[in-house]
Amino acid sequence: MNVERVRRGIGSDNTCRICGHDLEELLHVLRVCPMAKDIWNKLIPIEKQVRFYFRSFHEWMTENLQTMLSFGSNGIDWSCLFGMISWCIWKNHNSFVFRISLGARRKSSRSLIVGYLGCSVLERELWGILDGLDMSLDQDFKYILIQTDSCEAFNAIQEAFVGDSKSTLIRIIHQLLSKVLHWSIQHPSR
Length: 190
Ligand SMILES: [Zn+2]
Hints:
Elements: H1 2-7, H2 26-32, H3 34-43, H4 46-53, H5 57-66, E1 70-71, E2 76-77, H6 78-97, H7 104-117, H8 121-138, E3 143-147, H9 151-162, H10 168-177, E4 182-186
Parallel strand pairs: 3-4
Antiparallel strand pairs: 1-2
């Protein structure tokens, strides 16, 4: 985000590069910027939009990530969907803004959003794996070796090979893995 870049002294412009809004901060990127709003408006019923758009950032995140509500007729878990969409919005915003200077910066964006989402240790590890896979696929790597310190993440990814996983994250990881020629996963004992 430009606000953060200015704060760290690595930029002088804190306007949103997409819409020109004065302060490009997390709330703006995830909820206010037209790129984000277009997505939310398609998902949130009109009668619920006032509540959705006028919460403080913290309330908004907490309420949506902790709700037990499901979405649509398929009963998709809304908190999970909300987290994934927020992550995608964040990622798209960054890839637009930082297309030239990607690399290491992208990893720090991921840590920031995962931190805000308040995920469990396993989820954090899975988000990390997902992000690493995403970057590897961007670079057209055909052979991928995943190394994880998390025994749980290792098992979850391995087990999903045999049976269908209930975790959306795991399913997405497997979808991405199906695009490479060969992949394997290691859990190095420490
Ligand atoms: Zn904007």
